[in-house]
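User: Structure tokens for this complex, please. No commentary.
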Amino acid sequence: MVRKRQVTLSDIAATLGVAPMTVSRVVNRNGYVSEETRERVLHAVKAMNYRPNGVARNLKRQRTETVGLVLGDISNPYSAELANAVRERLWSSGYNLFICISEHSATEDITAFESLVDHNVDGIIVATRSNEEGDEHLRDIVDSHMPVVVIGRDFQYDGVDHVSADNLTGGFEATQHLIDLGHRRIGFIGADLKNRGSLKRLQGYVNVLNAHDIEVDERLVTGRKEAISGVPGYSTEKMGYEGMKRLLSLPNPPTAVFARNDFTAIGAMTAVKESGLSIPNDMAIVGFDDIPMATHTSPPLTTVRQPMRLQGQLAAEMLLRRIGDEETSKRKERVLNCELIIRESTVLTG
Amino acid sequence: MVRKRQVTLSDIAATLGVAPMTVSRVVNRNGYVSEETRERVLHAVKAMNYRPNGVARNLKRQRTETVGLVLGDISNPYSAELANAVRERLWSSGYNLFICISEHSATEDITAFESLVDHNVDGIIVATRSNEEGDEHLRDIVDSHMPVVVIGRDFQYDGVDHVSADNLTGGFEATQHLIDLGHRRIGFIGADLKNRGSLKRLQGYVNVLNAHDIEVDERLVTGRKEAISGVPGYSTEKMGYEGMKRLLSLPNPPTAVFARNDFTAIGAMTAVKESGLSIPNDMAIVGFDDIPMATHTSPPLTTVRQPMRLQGQLAAEMLLRRIGDEETSKRKERVLNCELIIRESTVLTG
DNA sequence: TGTTAATAAGTTAACGTTAACTTATTTTCA
DNA sequence: TGAAAATAAGTTAACGTTAACTTATTAACA
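Assistant:
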């Protein structure tokens, strides 16, 4: 059996001997149609299994009531939270959300942008990490009058709003907490010093050490050996594990570690436990994000909570405003506070 | 500043004094264009910031090279794994993936279907739980010649392929494992007995008890008190926590529990620990899914691993075949084996 | 009872692109 | 050298829908 052609408005119209416009009016519930005609049309719609072709409709209407969200690292629970917050906010304004994943490379980033633009979404929220090629394409997209908002992406461009957690202060507080506990040799796992520009959490770490006149020891800052092409510092549990192994093998290992995120911290914990050391006595560990798993590790993980829901909501709102406005207003930026959550991976309680 | 109209092929053509078709040929790299014209066009495309309107192109071409995936419960790590597997398989065939989330209700399910259909995706993969209204819409969509594949959704309809884990056997093995350990009073958390038809894991539990002539005690099977409208048995950590509280308050509580998924199991563990009992000595717990967190709980969680990646890959392949084929072949079904992963929430090792 | 307003349609053209066809020019080589 | 083939365009019509306009009929009411 050959796949049948899609049933169109005109097919229905032809069958009933009415104008396509009449059918359109019934389907869209606007304009005047007699009760009798309406029913004949609805009947035919059902019988012939007609469904409106959204592409054609969108082409005519010049809007789709759909927004795209580009997510990296969908496995990270906070991505899920973000996506849900965005979706809920959009939903309440009658917009749909399409999510694209771009987990590994700039190429994927770009493909995601392109396919969203291709489908004429009304706006795009980008929540992947910066990369040069991706940024370039993003600028092109913005220039072609597509409303864009970025979350936590280091991307500055006129007309593109920006939401992020205050990673700098977050990193500062995490490290300060370790110093308050008396630690002086503090490691960082998850990025190299040279990337501190793009990774604010690392910059926060550096700032604290500087503020306390502690020398930043390059050997204590460990990223992954081979960077994945195009995306700086893609992070996993394995990275944390390997990073900690490396730190522990130093002649003079740190007594505390700040990991770029909770997965990395959890990987690091595994390495510490394997080496027979105790947390937090021999090694204190701080993560970042406060994923659900952080409360279930043993010991539970001290971490910095970032307000993912709020970031999602704000981003959605900013985007909706840009979509609605005929105005192309100036770039807005919102940086949200983080909160240090102290658990037993740094201090024993009770 | 008023938002500018999108730049079109014809704008470029008009500027250069050529036919729109010539521009189209340059942009799509097909047909004959002189080197000189090509360069003039490319230059103008760049200068005027032209991007092709995918909607219009799709309308003409009658395909979008995009597939939709409807996911429930995106917070569950296995959803992420599934989505990634689907995406990778599609990517290698040149297809893009749009993900829609439908977390709470049949209405969301339906909206997701509609918006994907509206955007003329070439096919849809559905990985949400069954519900009557959603199924009805799904049938309509299938009838309108949209290729559809379902993952783990109890939906039987001609021409709709189906992939799932063998939840029945999985539930069987999980419960059998507890019986092998000597347990006779075994609870189930996450659904009510009356829903066992749609929840194969629960049916597996019932089957084992029957096979061992153990009476199925209705009080030991506990779902959530108020079901969320439209979606049977939406599951969370909280549900596991509350379920376990309820079981522990029984005059004769169970000595082991099989939870419908790992989150539920983890919630249940929290309740057990709070009441001062020990796992697995006073209470053995088995989950389902083998999410990453399962290895990090204390004690690590015994669970049933389902092959999410494989399910995603297969679903994508089945869908691609349906998209490619002009044939509308018969419904195919693949049920994949699960694997019991024994950890210390049921047996102390070493 | 005539004039205005509401109702129930139909007609036309366009959204931006491209498949299919046509025309004109240049190249190839028997 | 001339007929066929290749190249470089232009023209037309459609993909399926709907905004905007027009026409005809019916209802309302001063």
